[in-house]
């Protein structure tokens, strides 16, 4: 309330009553156009102020007579004219020099549109100053500069003290209660020194607090009592920058419950304090040098400058000191002596200074200056040598000071000194020359000095150019081969004589361009770093750059995560199971963590481990107490909560093996054991795995099959045999398990073992959250999007329409919008006050193809970007000093606009704004014209299903059906491999067969197998030669055999040895076209070839993988579906990774398996061994040679090595047909 009344009361007119001497200006058109006539609504004189010429160098200044709180400025054109301003800039000062530019979102004044209307410009933050200067920037193009003005505000009272490094003030505080919150200290200061101790507060506790300037930044230090050396000062926080600019800066500290809030010029940081500082019991506060011999922390020295209104817990200590006349070595006023600085604002900036007198050839020549900049390179000074014999350049390069001299007929001379001179601090540079000696020094020699002894005198001839050269390239007296300087200069000297810039400003001497005199306009763009997520900030004069290396984020401000938000998102980019970085909130504050993603055919599981997932034995505890176990997870608390919250289902195994160790006792008895689970510290849970929360039961109690029906858990039967209570905890509100307490472990014969499995969650509720917009006038609306400084928007869409607005949010002037502008272009547009900005991505393919496309848009203070699918991002840089805040106030419209025009028709899903998902489905269910969910995912993701896998639509998402594939996995991409021994065989019966290898219906292989049109593929590796890899026989007594290194009755490759232990892949396609090939076999020809029988008896030793005959995978059926498939396994069959291209050639089992037995069937495929390859044979039994009209065999590399009799002669070196076909 008090703040409200201050704003209302502080609106008094300040200019209307001022006398004429209070007004000054750069010039006046005439006596009647003077600055004293520039009062609002006055008509005296010519009706306002107008300068002699209308150009950007003009200004009007008002002296308010004393420091005043200024809250608003009103402008008006010159009465009865066409002269008014359309934009202006405000500057403020205490002493009429050392001006400070007023900066805010609308620091350019609101436009006038005529000469009479009054336009009020409210200052976002009140300014305390005595002098105001208004600089016209633009004016009515049909007139000239004309102005009347008023400022509004109120008086400002202050108590000030000047500290010169020797004097100081010590305040002894009255004893009071120790405060744990509510205590505060505030002060305002100005200084030209970048280091010094501002304030020290000490009390009864061991440690005190120190406020100190260091390199222009404010440090809050924790200092041990009685110590002042830097090793004992612990830095708590650093805030602010460039605080040595001789402008007032406000500092406040407020003690909270568990920390301290430090504020510098409106920027705040929260500092957690050690427990020993939780109580604020200061007994004394000192400023300046204080009393007694004290050294400053870190050797920074005592403070030089002015302090104002030092307030401790509401008491102005400076006011008390002034009343008590505690003068000593301090002065209760603030005297200013500030050197006049100049700001070189752009690459076109320069200052030309004529030499008043040239130094005699025998005397010393010198030039010096001070500068501060963020740029590594720039010209400081250049001049011609006398009689145009050459030139000299003093410049920055690589943040070092360089001097280069070119003299006709001589080799160039180069000197360099200093380093890291682009740190924004003031540095001095001096060039000194006398006959036989030349030197260049940095910071008075402290920053290094370079010397040379040229055989000539380096003298100055003509004129000097500072910062750069005029844009007129025809000038011969100024040539700049380097970059122009951007930064501030002051204290220019020539021949040891200071240069006064004020006559330059009045254009009484020299010349300049793009130069601001009597101010240093340097900005620290990294002090309030816009680099997010730990990105490091580097800056130049006009911009900054964020280094995002190692942060896990990208973009101009390290805003957008480079990782997906869930395992589900990784899966549907085609990734297999493995460890992935998961960033659960995208661009939000939670950092990414490495998590395991288990991509199965049915679900995608996120697995979060903890410190003990093994089965852990429990023995009687010493002293008979309970035993407890605590579980620390591999993810932070915020990550755990986010993963659980966004998942469709989470589960965690909880089991207890017991012998004479009860678990929960009885449903109504005292609780023996429990576990703690849920968010935060969790809550006590009284149920066990497989039972509902609060039931005080185990799974067997719910299913009524416990070993003792009187108890709800097996262990509660208290028997001497081993029993188990186990099950899954599936209620997300109680997960994860944080600790476990077991109570019945005191007895000597009690034994137990517990296991708490990892937390497993599947499904991402956000990835498939979708809405279907079936009308152009339909839309969803959400609360206003708040992305003032950083805004990222991502979503997927699919449509058959060529245009439509995806998203729109409006403000009074600002807006943000993403739209499909045409069937090949997506447009991202916005306005933050600098006018509309557009970023577009144009594709070479249609976007109205009813397939999913991904859009990612980002806007921040540095740039805007738009990315579509995997195309390169389109970017637009933001103006260097433009508006930065996106100010919106309307509802957020999705799928349409507020005008209900140009709406989007199609589907949108997975919409996220700044990492926060929007629930489209929930809003769609209550919105006419919009449907929740969106079908049809296989058109976009069907290609992820590999190796004959079939894409299956789901209500949300899709899956790959691998029943007709020899592979398994989420995308049918994981080979099924097995290691064979000589006694191992797998038989698959085709009669009665109407199912695939996983037990599902499979009409691709009929029970009337005739081997006329077949497809066969497999991979193998082996060292055995020869060998029978696969045999297929039919009820017609026809057969097909795949042999390794057997030269008989074959089509074969000419490579002499495939039994080399390497992995080889084979594909065989058969197409028998002659009718004569269908005749039944005679009984006397049904005998198997003797050579084939001999090979079969040898068995196969090696690896077989990916075996597929038509749509049946016998090996997959034997390993994964033995109970539902017509398969018989003889001998040991062990699943292996031997079929992987990365597997060791002699790898063995990666697990154990038991042989599976089943009945033998009539038509069958027999697999013997694992698949080595290269000298490969295909044998067809009981077919005359003319029947083999069309067949195809592919080599391991996928190259064609045989195709029918017509091609055999051409491929004779690779494949041939034996003459003794049965």
Question: What does this molecule look like?
Answer:
It is a single chain. Strands 21, 23, 28, 29, 30, 32, 33 and 35 form an eight-stranded antiparallel β-sheet that branches. Strands 40, 41, 42, 43, 45, 48, 50 and 51 form an eight-stranded antiparallel β-sheet that branches. Strands 52, 54, 59, 60, 61, 63, 64 and 65 form an eight-stranded antiparallel β-sheet that branches. The protein has eleven helices and 84 strands. 6% of the residues lie in helices and 39% in strands. This is Contactin associated protein like 3. InterPro entries: ConA-like_dom_sf, EGF, FA58C, Fibrinogen-like_C, Fibrinogen_a/b/g_C_dom, Galactose-bd-like_sf, Laminin_G, Neurexin-related_CASP. Residues 10-154 form the F5/8 type C domain. Residues 558-610 form the Fibrinogen C-terminal domain.
Number of strands: 84
Oligomer: single chain
| SSE-based structural type | mainly beta
Discrete helix count: 11
Largest sheet: 8 strands, antiparallel
Helix share, percent? under 10%
Mean pLDDT: 82
Rg calculated over all Cα atoms: 42 Å
The general outline is elongated
Strand-residue proportion: 35-45%
Report how far the terminal alpha carbons are from each other: 107 Å
Low-confidence stretches: 1-7, 228-232, 291-299, 992-999, 1001-1009, 1073-1086, 1143-1165, 1168-1222
Biased composition (Polar residues): 1206-1222
Subcellular location: Membrane
Protein name: Contactin associated protein like 3
Domain F5/8 type C: 10-154
């Amino acid at each position: 309330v008090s703040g409200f009344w201050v704003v209302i009361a502080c609106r008094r007119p300040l200019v209307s009553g001022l006398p004429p001497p209070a007004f000054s200006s750069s010039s006046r058109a005439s006596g009647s156009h003077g600055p004293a006539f520039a009062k609002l609504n006055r008509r005296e004189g010519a009706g306002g102020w107008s300068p002699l010429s209308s150009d950007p160098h003009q200004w009007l200044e008002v002296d308010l007579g004393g420091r005043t709180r200024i809250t608003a400025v009103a402008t008006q054109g010159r009465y009865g004219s066409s002269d008014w301003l359309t934009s202006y800039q405000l500057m403020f000062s205490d002493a009429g020099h050392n001006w400070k530019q007023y900066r805010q979102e609308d620091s350019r004044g609101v436009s006038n549109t005529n000469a009479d209307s009054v336009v009020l410009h409210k200052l976002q933050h009140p300014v305390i100053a005595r002098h105001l200067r208004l600089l016209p920037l633009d004016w009515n193009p049909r007139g000239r500069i004309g102005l009347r003005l008023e400022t509004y505000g109120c008086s400002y009272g202050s108590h000030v003290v000047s500290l010169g490094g020797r004097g100081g003030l010590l305040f002894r505080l009255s004893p009071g209660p120790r405060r744990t919150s509510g205590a505060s200290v505030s002060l305002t200061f100005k200084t030209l020194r970048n280091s010094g101790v501002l304030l020290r507060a000490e009390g009864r506790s061991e440690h005190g607090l120190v406020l100190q300037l260091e390199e222009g930044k404010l440090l809050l230090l924790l200092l041990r009592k009685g110590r002042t050396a830097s090793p004992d000062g612990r830095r708590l926080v650093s805030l602010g920058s460039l605080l040595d600019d001789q402008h007032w800066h406000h500092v406040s500290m407020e003690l909270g419950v568990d920390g301290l809030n430090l504020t510098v010029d409106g920027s705040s940081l929260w500092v957690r304090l050690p427990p020993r500082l939780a109580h604020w019991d200061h007994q004394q506060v000192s400023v300046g040098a204080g009393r007694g011999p004290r050294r400053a922390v870190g050797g920074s020295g005592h403070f030089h400058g002015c302090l104002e209104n030092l307030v401790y817990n509401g008491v102005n200590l400076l006011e008390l000191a002034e009343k008590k006349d505690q003068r000593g070595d301090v002065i209760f006023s603030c005297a200013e002596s500030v050197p006049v600085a100049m700001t070189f604002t752009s690459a076109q900036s320069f200052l030309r200074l004529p030499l008043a007198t040239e130094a005699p050839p025998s005397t010393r020549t010198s030039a010096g200056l001070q500068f501060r900049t963020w740029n590594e390179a720039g010209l400081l000074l250049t001049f011609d040598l006398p009689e145009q014999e050459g030139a000299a350049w003093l410049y920055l390069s690589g943040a070092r000071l360089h001097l280069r001299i070119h003299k006709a007929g001589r080799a160039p001379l180069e000197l360099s000194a200093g380093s890291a001179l682009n740190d924004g601090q003031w540095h001095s540079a001096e060039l000194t020359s006398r006959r036989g000696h030349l030197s260049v020094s940095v910071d008075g020699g402290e920053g290094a000095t370079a010397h040379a002894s040229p055989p000539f005198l380096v003298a100055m001839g003509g004129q000097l150019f500072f910062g750069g050269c005029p844009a007129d390239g025809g000038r011969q007296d100024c040539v700049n081969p380097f970059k122009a300087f951007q930064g501030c200069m002051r204290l220019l000297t020539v021949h040891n004589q200071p240069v006064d810039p004020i006559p330059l400003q009045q254009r009484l001497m020299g010349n300049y361009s793009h130069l601001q005199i009597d101010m240093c306009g340097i900005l620290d763009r990294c002090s309030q770093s816009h680099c997010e997520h730990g990105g490091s900030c580097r800056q130049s004069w006009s911009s900054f750059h964020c280094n995002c290396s190692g942060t896990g984020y990208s973009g101009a401000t390290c805003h957008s995560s480079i990782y997906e938000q869930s395992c589900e998102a990784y899966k549907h980019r085609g990734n297999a199971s493995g460890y992935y970085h998961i960033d659960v909130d995208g661009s939000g504050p939670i950092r990414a963590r490495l998590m395991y993603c288990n991509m199965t055919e049915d679900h995608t599981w996120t697995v979060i481990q903890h410190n003990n997932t093994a089965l852990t034995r429990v023995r009687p505890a010493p002293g008979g107490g309970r035993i407890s176990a605590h579980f620390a997870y591999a993810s932070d608390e915020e990550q755990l909560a986010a993963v659980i919250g966004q998942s469709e289902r989470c589960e965690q195994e909880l089991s207890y093996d017991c012998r004479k160790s009860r678990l929960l006792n009885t449903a109504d008895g005292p609780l023996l054991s429990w576990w703690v689970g849920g968010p935060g510290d969790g809550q006590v849970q009284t149920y066990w795995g497989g039972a509902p929360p609060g039931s005080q039961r185990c799974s067997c109690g719910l299913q009524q099959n416990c070993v003792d029906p009187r108890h709800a858990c097996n262990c509660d039967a208290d028997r001497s045999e081993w029993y188990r209570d186990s099950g899954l905890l599936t209620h997300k509100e109680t997960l994860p398990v944080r600790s476990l307490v077991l109570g019945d472990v005191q007895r000597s014969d009690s034994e137990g073992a517990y296991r708490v499995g990892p937390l497993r969650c599947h499904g991402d509720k956000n990835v498939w959250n979708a809405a279907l917009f079936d009308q152009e006038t339909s839309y969803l609306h959400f609360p206003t999007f708040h992305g003032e400084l950083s805004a990222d928007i991502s979503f997927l869409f699919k449509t058959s329409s060529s245009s439509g607005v995806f998203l729109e949010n409006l403000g009074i002037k600002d807006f943000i919008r993403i739209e499909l502008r045409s069937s090949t272009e997506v447009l991202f547009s916005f306005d933050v006050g600098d006018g509309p900005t557009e970023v577009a991505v144009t594709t070479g393919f249609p976007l109205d193809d009813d397939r999913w496309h991904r859009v990612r848009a980002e806007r921040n203070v540095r740039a805007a970007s738009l990315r579509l699918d995997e195309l390169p991002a389109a970017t637009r840089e933001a103006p260097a000093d433009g508006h930065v805040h996106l100010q919106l106030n309307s509802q957020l419209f999705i799928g349409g606009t507020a005008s209900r025009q140009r709406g989007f028709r199609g589907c949108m899903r997975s919409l996220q704004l700044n990492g926060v998902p929007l629930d489209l489905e929930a809003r769609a269910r209550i919105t006419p014209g919009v449907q929740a969910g969106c079908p049809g995912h296989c058109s976009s993701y069907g290609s992820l299903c590999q190796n004959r896998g079939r894409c299956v639509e789901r209500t949300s998402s899709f899956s790959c059906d691998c029943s007709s594939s020899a592979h398994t996995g989420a995308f049918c991409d994981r080979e099924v491999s097995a290691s064979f021994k000589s006694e191992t065989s797998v038989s698959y019966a085709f009669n009665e067969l109407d199912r695939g290898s996983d037990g599902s219906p499979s009409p691709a292989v009929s029970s009337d197998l005739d081997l006329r049109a077949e497809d066969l593929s497999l991979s193998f590796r082996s060292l055995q030669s020869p060998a029978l890899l696969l045999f297929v026989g039919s009820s017609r007594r026809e057969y097909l055999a795949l042999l390794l290194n057997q030269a008989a009755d074959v089509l074969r490759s000419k490579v002499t040895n495939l039994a080399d232990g390497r992995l080889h892949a084979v594909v065989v396609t058969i197409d028998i076209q002659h009718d004569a090939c269908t005749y039944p076999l005679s009984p006397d020809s049904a005998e198997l070839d003797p050579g084939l029988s001999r090979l079969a008896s040898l068995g196969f030793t090696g690896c077989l993988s990916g075996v597929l005959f038509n749509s049946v995978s016998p090996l997959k059926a034997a390993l994964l579906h033995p109970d539902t498939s017509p398969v018989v396994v003889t001998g040991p069959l062990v699943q292996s990774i031997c079929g992987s291209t990365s597997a060791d050639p002699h790898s063995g089992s990666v697990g154990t398996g038991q042989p599976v037995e089943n009945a033998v069937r009539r038509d069958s495929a027999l697999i013997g061994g694992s698949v080595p390859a290269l000298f490969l044979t295909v044998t067809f039994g009981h077919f005359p040679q003319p029947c083999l009209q069309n067949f195809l065999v592919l080599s391991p590399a996928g190259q064609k090595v045989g195709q029918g009799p017509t091609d055999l002669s051409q491929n004779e070196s690779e494949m041939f047909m034996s003459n003794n076909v049965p």
